[in-house]
Write a structure and sequence with these properties.
- This protein is of the alpha/beta class and about 200 residues long.
- It has one domain: Vaccinia Virus protein VP39 (Rossmann fold).
- The protein contains 6 helices and 7 strands.
- It has a 7-stranded mixed β-sheet, with helices on both faces.
- It is globular and about 45 Å long.
- It starts with a helix and ends with a strand.
């Protein structure tokens, strides 16, 4: 039954242009969570709750805190989380992630929100990372535009591509982190905290 309901979320996202992780990207992420015994997760950007639900379903010990600023998406996510009986394991907060301070520590922080703010998200929440924790960033290929921005003439898209490239450079040069880039989904980076 869970399988069917997840497919319904995927269909809803596609029909309503809600950006959720691509299938091979989310499979890669959930496998990583399983293989590395991740138990506590902070997600920046819930959308309709799809990735929070997928991550939580990996293991019965996993707890997720997820932040969504869009009130409509937040309400849909709350309903979806409730429908999967995960309300006790997924804490969803309706706020702009840059305006909240959290004290908890997490094994994994997943950044999948406004791409233009990725550096700010990283800098704000890295203090919430456990020792040897990881920060996962999605959409670093941005439909292939990051590798080749000649595919678009849209000025806003080109600006966004510049910001994503800047973030990629930021990750490569970030001290105390080792970042590995994967060509999964829409481009995923895993930044491992070294100290």
């Amino acid at each position: 039954m869970v399988h069917v309901r997840l497919e319904e979320l995927e269909k809803y996202a596609e029909e309503n242009n809600v950006p959720i992780m691509q299938k091979d990207g989310i499979d890669f992420l959930t496998n990583y969570i399983k293989e590395n015994n991740i138990k506590s997760i902070l997600e920046i950007g819930s959308a309709i709750g799809y990735s929070a639900i997928k991550m939580t379903l990996v293991d019965s010990d996993i707890k997720v805190t997820t932040i969504e600023r869009d009130v409509n998406r937040y309400n849909i996510a709350v309903k979806n989380i409730h429908d999967f009986n995960l309300s006790d394991r997924i804490n969803i907060i309706n706020v702009d992630a840059l305006e909240i301070d959290l004290n908890d520590k997490y094994d994994l922080i997943f950044i999948d929100a406004a791409k233009s703010q990725y550096i700010r998200f990283f800098e704000k929440f890295e203090k919430n990372l456990n020792t040897n924790g990881v920060i996962v960033s999605d959409n670093l290929s941005f439909h292939g535009f990051v590798e080749d921005d000649s595919k678009t003439n849209n000025r806003n898209t080109k600006q966004l591509v510049k910001k994503i490239r800047k973030y990629i450079d930021y990750l490569k040069e970030k001290p105390n982190y080792k970042t590995i880039f994967y060509k999964m989904g829409d481009g995923v980076a895993i930044s491992i905290k070294l100290d």
